[in-house]
Amino acid sequence: MIPSFPTGATLNSMYAAAARSGRFANFNSACRAVTGLSPPSAYHLHTGFRSEDFCRVVLDDAITASELLHRHTLFPLLSRILGDEAKKKWHRNLIFGSPAIQKGFARIFACQYLISKEWRICPECATEDLAAHGYVYTRLPHQLKSEKHCTNHGVVLMQGCTCPLDANDWSTLERCPSCRDTIYPINDFEYEVNSQTRRIFNGILRSALTEDSPHLHPRTRNRAMRSLCEKYRVDPSGLLKKFCAWLKIRDFSDLSKLLGIRVTERNLHSFFTRGAADNFNLLLISSSFAWQQISPAAKNELNHNSAEPVHHNVPTTNATSNRSSFITEVQRLAEYFQLHPNFPNAVFTGDIHLAIAMAGRYDVFNFIQSLSLESRTYMSIEPRLQSLVINY
């Protein structure tokens, strides 16, 4: 195994350290030994796919699979928006690695919106790593696209290329020995634009990574929005101006640059009206705004009433009873998640586009993953409902 490693080290650099130690021929062979993929996708590298195998093969069980997920992957950040059932299912399958189940999660969580393609490193952390561990490790917070500085040392991060890390000679931080690309300090003009907004956004991301932030359960999120409307005595669309002032953005082009997508007033109006958002970053930052504005008493009340209903998978004997059970559960869950009143009808007709328009793809995903096995089985054999269960 690799001798030691710091908290927050990326799986990418841990694979590389294992290869440099001589345990594997190279980075790709280390990845193949764990995931069966060579090279693995960004999703598999940053979410800890087959973490139990990783801990056994690479770390000789120095830490548990669950510890690996919570300290060295994006799981704490990405799972903040999941309901209880979906979060448990994803956690279980990241540990044991069922490719079929992972497809749905990989489709919904696109890491390229969060993580830089090029590796990034802090020179001070690199020096400390060589002294303490014998290898240099990239840190997960440093790989966030919007991050420019090391939070521990306050220095500007160095940015490299996309070569596998074991191709790099860490005796110098000047040039990649493989592709000869220069390793340089991050100095993108966009980082200087709206620095206050970036600091707020990066603070939200770092808090979620360390699990020092609220679990933005769909029910909690939607109820927080209603509580906020009552507090300010405005309708949801009236929260838009307060959100822009809180985030310190001048116009929506600022937010578009920050999130890497085109954000319009319509996008935000849709979120504050229905809680619907199709971009993870937008969902996270808007939800954090709502959570920070409500009172401590309201937060306690929301946290104590967010547990999902318990499933009772009772076998049924005919198609009529199967459909009846399915209809009852869909209506109950939609009410629990506080989704649009017409959302169940979109599910019953299999209209995936209408369902997404009403709730956003993340909450549609949460909803489908929270259904009982009995209901999901019924959907898989009902032709007009198959697209929902296949995609989510």
Q: Helicity level, as a percent range? A: 55-70%
Mean model confidence by pLDDT: 81
Helix and strand run: HHHHHHHHEHEEHHHHHHHHHHHHHH
- Biggest β-sheet description: 3 strands, antiparallel
Q: How much strand content do the residues show?
A: under 5%
Which spans have pLDDT < 50 for at least 5 consecutive residues?
Answer: 312-317
* Overall geometry: globular
Strand order of the largest sheet: 1-2-3
| Gyration radius from CA atoms, angstroms | 22 Å
- Global structural class: mainly alpha
The number of helical elements comes to 23
According to DSSP, the number of beta strands is 3
Spell out the blueprint of helices and strands.
Elements: H1 11-20, H2 27-35, H3 42-47, H4 51-57, H5 65-72, H6 75-78, H7 84-96, H8 99-108, E1 120-121, H9 123-132, E2 158-159, E3 184-185, H10 189-192, H11 195-209, H12 218-232, H13 239-247, H14 252-259, H15 265-274, H16 280-293, H17 296-303, H18 319-337, H19 343-348, H20 352-359, H21 361-370, H22 373-381, H23 386-391
Antiparallel strand pairs: 1-2, 2-3
Describe this protein's structure:
The structure is a single chain. With 392 residues, the chain is mainly α. The chain is built from 23 helices and three strands. It has helices at 11-20, 27-35, 42-47, 51-57, 65-72, 75-78, 84-96, 99-108, 123-132, 189-192, 195-209, 218-232, 239-247, 252-259, 265-274, 280-293, 296-303, 319-337, 343-348, 352-359, 361-370, 373-381, 386-391; strands at residues 120-121, 158-159, 184-185. Strands 1-2-3 form a three-stranded antiparallel β-sheet. α7 packs across α21 and α12 (218-232) packs across α16 (280-293). It is globular, with a radius of gyration of 22 Å. It starts with 10 loop residues before the first helix and ends with a helix.
